[in-house]
């Protein structure tokens, strides 16, 4: 299937000399949820702002559903909804009016039924006649999402959409994102809540210092880079790991009451059988075993550290 967004050789260097993006190449698939992760200042917002036509690139090309953002800007931009980080709304305007106005900016006729549905999906319908200044921070964030969806875009950019939003509102937002994806909308999000990317995303991209260091299917990323740990709980503290067990690279924890064995999920063999055999030969008994696997956050931290 043809990608809905194609980014080729994209770079951005500001007048100050700051290289915000360096030769970024990326394809976003139609109908996927793509999570872009990276530390503060990595270039996430710059990348989004360039695709949305807010920032001019230094080099490179971008097409949105076949439309070049430079030569066919209006067609490309009409396909995109953007929810920025900043809470920029007209404080004195009413919710229904400001969302309807956003639809008109794209040359679309009035559609009260669509605006009503968007507001209901975001639990904003009861606030439709409230002025923006009367809303909480979380509700203002929802209004930004409603404005981005007012013109029925095929692509939705969410730049830190749940920053400052309470847990209940956050869960509502993600239910809405799933519904959008199921209806065919492509969703690109940046987030500091990595557990959200782990739960929501189909693919994950990691950006650091303006460079896209990895793009991978989430499940495949966790399979390839994730590690599992086997924790053996000992009935008696162990003062030191016997030399005969050195090949297993074990760690002692909890004052000698736990032995931790880490193995690569990519390996055809885990080595657990050999470990248990060697433990028995060394006279080391255990009373319980726990297993754990790397989370996306663990993998992300390792990737950023390795790229440093």
From TrEMBL:
CDD domains: ABC_DR_subfamily_A (cd03230). InterPro entries: AAA+_ATPase (IPR003593), ABC_transporter-like_ATP-bd (IPR003439), ABC_transporter-like_CS (IPR017871), ABC_transporter_ATP-binding (IPR050763), P-loop_NTPase (IPR027417). Residues 5-234 form the ABC transporter domain. PROSITE patterns: ABC_TRANSPORTER_1, ABC_TRANSPORTER_2. GO terms for molecular function: ATP binding; ATP hydrolysis activity. SMART domains: AAA. Keywords: ATP-binding, Nucleotide-binding, Transport. The keyword Nucleotide-binding applies. The keyword Lipid metabolism does not apply. Pfam families: ABC_tran. Belongs to the ABC transporter superfamily. This is ABC transporter ATP-binding protein. It comes from Methylobacterium brachythecii.
């Amino acid at each position: 299937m043809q990608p809905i967004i194609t980014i080729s050789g994209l770079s951005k260097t500001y007048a100050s000399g700051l290289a915000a993006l360096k030769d970024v190449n990326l394809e976003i698939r139609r109908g996927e949820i793509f999570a872009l992760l990276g530390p503060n200042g990595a270039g996430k917002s710059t990348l989004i702002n360039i695709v949305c036509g807010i920032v001019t690139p230094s080099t490179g090309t971008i097409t949105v559903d076949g439309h070049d953002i430079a030569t066919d800007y209006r067609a490309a931009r009409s396909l995109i909804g953007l929810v920025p980080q900043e809470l920029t709304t007209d404080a004195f305007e009413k919710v229904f009016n400001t969302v309807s106005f956003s639809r008109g900016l794209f040359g679309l006729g009035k559609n009260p039924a669509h605006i009503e549905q968007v507001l209901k999906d975001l639990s904003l319908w009861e606030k439709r006649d409230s002025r923006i200044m009367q809303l909480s921070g979380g509700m203002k964030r929802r209004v930004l999402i409603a404005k981005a969806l007012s013109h029925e875009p095929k692509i939705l950019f969410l730049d830190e959409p749940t920053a400052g939003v309470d847990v209940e509102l956050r869960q509502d937002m993600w239910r809405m994102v799933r519904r959008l994806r199921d209806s065919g909308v492509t969703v690109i999000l940046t987030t500091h809540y990595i557990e959200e990317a782990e739960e929501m995303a189909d693919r994950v991209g990691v950006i650091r210092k303006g460079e896209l260091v990895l793009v991978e299917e989430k499940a495949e990323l966790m399979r390839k880079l994730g590690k599992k740990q086997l924790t053996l709980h000992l009935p008696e503290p162990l003062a030191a790991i016997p030399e005969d067990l050195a090949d297993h690279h074990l760690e002692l924890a909890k004052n000698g009451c736990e032995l931790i064995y880490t193995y690569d999920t990519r390996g055809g063999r885990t080595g657990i059988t050999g470990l248990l055999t060697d433990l028995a030969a060394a006279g080391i008994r255990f009373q319980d075993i726990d297993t754990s696997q790397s989370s996306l956050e663990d993998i992300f931290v390792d990737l950023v550290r390795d790229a440093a």
